[in-house]
């Protein structure tokens, strides 16, 4: 994996001036639990522009996977959307009937999952499964099979004519993730949701999968919502980054801005903790002191969500929820609006560290 | 280079070897008890299917011959207290037993499968409701439940089938429900939903093939239970109506005349034992083959 700081030199994808493909507006989502409601996502606003790869980063429990599952509406039964909208193709996905939503899944959007070991059916051959997911297409089985072989070839499965008859257990983890990607990409979706697709893989395989996603995205021209806690892969793959903390977007912007000029103390701390960025030899890896605040019921802190762990917190953070401030970067024309929800970024604020 | 490729290809074929069914047959062949069970089952099922052709006499015909006669060349298993040919009655009784087993188990399997899928995949309240009903049915002792139903509907072949089906449904439904639930947690079900599949498609294409194997094995091991239950009810005079022969009725009749002749009891009892053994051995062998995790000898 390339060093994150060195990574954001990759060629930029063309940025469409038209409306973004996916527009999440003020999304709030609760999970009901015996302990009360868990406010897992609060007032999330983010966009996925056409043809761009947007990374969603944050630590465990920050709601990054929940966001992806909310977009494709495959949340657990106890999830309740309490506000906001998710607009795609001019329609709010949250208002669609289950039937309409099924029509979108597997056509306009598809998804790849964290664990390739369990995301394929063990009792069906790869070919059977790949033919099965084309059930909507009115073409012959032989035709579907040919397409499946082609899709496997595209993701770099050697000898696909033969391997298409194999069963999942005959493939390694990396190969299975390639197969999952082949299946998700076979429908040529407009939006691919990737929920930590490389977390279960070893580092060398991870690089290959990232490279594969990058190549396929360029070929198909789809957008990708890439969920990961690995800053290196995000820096490598994504154009834009959304940083989530405890169910809130704390900062978003282009990958270059976020990694070179983080505007939020949490992003700063997150980058400091990346082992790839530590320069000197140390026995103790840096951590962010404290824990993520409880999101149950009324225990969600008032004011800034990060104040309990923030080294720069001051009195204003206690009672005032920070709005999105534009982060002034050194560049003349930033290629994506860079915003951070931190009072320190308020131009009127005198106390700059 | 070409030669290397050829070698790899043929080695691959060797590794994969025979098709799954040939492998299963080889495993079964190396299991003597399982093979014995298979032979017994084939014999019993075969004689049941061909019963009408192979019976030497009409099983209900009262013959002008010895009553309670010992085995002879004319009557290999002797005759009963009315002078009917016991062998013919045993063969026809086998047909009745198989009929009850097949009919009752297929009804129980299909309904149990359906209820299990609904309970396992449906909403929580439906699951709870179904479980309550299933557990209530299962809480009745089978024989008491059978006697109650028979008192209500009167003894007949249909009643026996009904009783066996109703008492077996909860077992199958529970197995299917548990399997369905654990399968639904798999990511490939989520992945299938992410591809836009609806519930019928997920259940039919992905859950059913995973559930059906264990279920069929369970059913094959239930065959002896069902046969014993049918024989038991008929023995108590609550099952198949005379003059239709049943192993239970043969036993009961023989039991009344046991001091005169042991042959009817032996003739009625042996097939029950053999069939029970056959299906049990075969069922265990099948389970070992299809579910290697349960295999004892490994």
From TrEMBL, chain A:
Give the UniProt record's GO annotations in the biological process aspect: peptide transport; transmembrane transport
Supply the source organism for this entry. Caenispirillum salinarum AK4
Family, per entry: Belongs to the ABC transporter superfamily.
> Nucleotide-binding: is it a keyword of this entry?
yes
Annotated SMART domains = AAA
InterPro entries on file: AAA+_ATPase, ABC_Ni/Peptide_Import, ABC_transporter-like_ATP-bd, ABC_transporter-like_CS, Oligopep_ABC_C, P-loop_NTPase
Annotated compartments? Cell inner membrane
List UniProt keywords, sorted A-Z. Answer: ATP-binding, Cell membrane, Membrane, Nucleotide-binding, Transport
Report the Pfam families cross-referenced here: ABC_tran, oligo_HPY
- Whether Thylakoid counts among this entry's keywords is no
Q: Name one GO cellular component term.
A: plasma membrane
Q: Give the Gene Ontology MF terms in alphabetical order.
A: ATP binding; ATP hydrolysis activity
Which branch of life, at top level? Bacteria
Domain called ABC transporter: residue spans: 24-271
By what name is this protein known?
Answer: Oligopeptide transport ATP-binding protein OppD
Q: Which CDD domains match?
A: ABC_NikE_OppD_transporters (cd03257)
Please give, as recorded in its UniProt entry, the membrane topology of this protein: Peripheral membrane protein
From TrEMBL, chain B:
SUPFAM superfamilies linked: MetI-like (SSF161098)
One GO cellular component assignment for this chain's record is: plasma membrane
Recorded topology in the membrane: Multi-pass membrane protein
Which branch of life, at top level?
Bacteria
The residues covered by the ABC transmembrane type-1 domain are 94-283
Q: Would you tell me the protein name for this molecule?
A: Dipeptide transport system permease protein DppC
Stated family: Belongs to the binding-protein-dependent transport system permease family.
GO biological process: what's one of them? peptide transport
Q: Where in the cell is it found?
A: Cell membrane
Record keywords, A-Z: Cell membrane, Membrane, Peptide transport, Protein transport, Transmembrane, Transmembrane helix, Transport
- Per the UniProt record, which residue ranges are transmembrane? 33-55, 96-119, 139-172, 211-236, 265-286
Pfam families registered for this protein in UniProt: BPD_transp_1, OppC_N
Q: Which ranges of the sequence are coiled-coil?
A: none
Q: Which organism is it from?
A: Caenispirillum salinarum AK4
